[in-house]
Every structure is written in structure tokens, then in C-alpha cells.
Amino acid sequence: DAKTWRLYTFKDGYLSISPHAWSAEDLSKETQVTIIRTERIRGWAPWPEAYPKCKNGVAEVIRRGVANGKLEGRIGKRQFEILSADFIVDTRGDVWLFEFNMSPVLKDPKDSPTTNDSDMITAALEIVVPREGS
Question: pTM of the full predicted structure?
Fold first, then answer.
């Protein structure tokens, strides 16, 4: 119908922790906003509480995008989008949507053996084209 969207989220992304404590005086990208993938997020203690908040935030952005005609499907076509959302979780556990990436940088296992996106891409493709026997 080109109007129905199903949201699937990949729960085991990456945590990016700045190597420097935040400071208003330090304007380096490593301090202000880091893109350095530090570790899998599954080992981060606040994640079980933060994840549902992040997922709800993404769902709301998608809902608004569809309602406002910013996300449109194509009639008679199956399609999917891979996107990423970056959040800031404060010391109280509140979650703040920082940015949405409609064309996220996806890392290949050959170039980034410990912080790549192959399992996320495989999981996304299996939604659209399930493997035999799964």
C-alpha cells in the first residue's frame, strides 16, 4: 500500500565513548562528538533501560516522517531502508536523539574486523529474503 512501514531495530550496535571527558572549552571532534566505535553496546550496563527509549524515539521519527509525507513507499514494490540513529544518554538515564543517518557509514569486516556491520546487514537482509530453513 506504500503507506505501511514496519520498524525493525538492531539491538546490538556500537557504543562510542569519547576518549576525553566533555568540556565546553575543548572543541575537538573526539571530545564533542565521537565516531570512534568503542565496544558492542550489549556490555554497557544502562543499555537494557536505554534501548526501549531509543527504539521508541526512532519509531516516533518514522511515524512523523510517514505522516508528513517525508518517507514514501512505492506502490507494488517491496523495499527497505537501513538507517542509523545516534543518541546521547545522560547521567539520569534520559535519552536524547542526536541525529538520524539515512545513509550511515557501514563498515566491512575486511577493513574493520572488530567493529563491522556484517551481522546487522545480514539480519536486515534476512527480514526481506529469509534464508532457507530459518
Answer: 0.79
